[in-house]
Write a structure and sequence with these properties.
HIT family, subunit A; five-stranded antiparallel beta sheet; binds zinc ion; HIT-like_sf; alpha+beta; nucleotide-binding; two-stranded parallel ribbon
Length: about 160
């Protein structure tokens, strides 16, 4: 899928080569709160954190991850599962308050064959959906337009976070 107007691509390209052997989720967790905005971290708890997706499918696309670096879902501790689910709930609240979507897709890609880009650190994708957001444009042309910049989304969701 081609994406029109993607200012975040620039920061992605300039990042490649510097930290591509590290894990961006661990880095974001470690650098919280000092570099929270730069790393797009909305919230970090003791065992889980919430990060905006740099390559969103829709405005408000975020990820809820354990702080601990693991790609093995079956290894998650009960305390981690509880905190991840609590942050999923709070993320939905913030997204509802900010954007009033008509629905959500929440999902995990586990393992190399799942189609996810990072399989070494678990992350739930949370994608707000609006009726009509899969309109003729992406279907016909393979083009998707993201109406709000990541910086604006970050500020909006930060204000709506409880
Ligand atoms: Zn990690």
């Amino acid at each position: 899928m081609e994406i029109i107007w993607a200012p975040w691509r620039l920061s992605y390209v300039s990042r490649v080569g510097k930290e591509d052997n590290g894990c961006f989720i661990c880095k974001a967790a470690k650098e919280y709160p000092e570099r929270a905005k730069e790393n797009l971290v909305l919230y970090r708890g003791e065992r889980a954190l919430v990060i905006l997706n740099k390559f969103p499918y829709n405005t408000g696309h975020l990820m809820v991850c354990p702080v601990r670096h693991t790609g093995d879902f079956t290894s998650l501790l009960t305390e981690e599962v509880v905190e991840i689910n609590d942050l999923l709930k709070r993320a939905l609240k913030a997204l509802k308050r900010a954007y009033n979507p008509d629905g959500f897709n929440i999902g995990l890609n586990l393992g190399k064959a799942s189609g996810g880009s990072v399989d070494t650190h678990i992350h739930y994708h949370v994608v707000p959906r609006w009726i009509g957001d899969t309109n003729f444009l992406p279907v016909v042309s393979g083009v998707k337009v993201i109406p709000q910049s990541l910086e604006e989304t970050y500020e909006t969701l930060k204000k709506c976070w409880e």
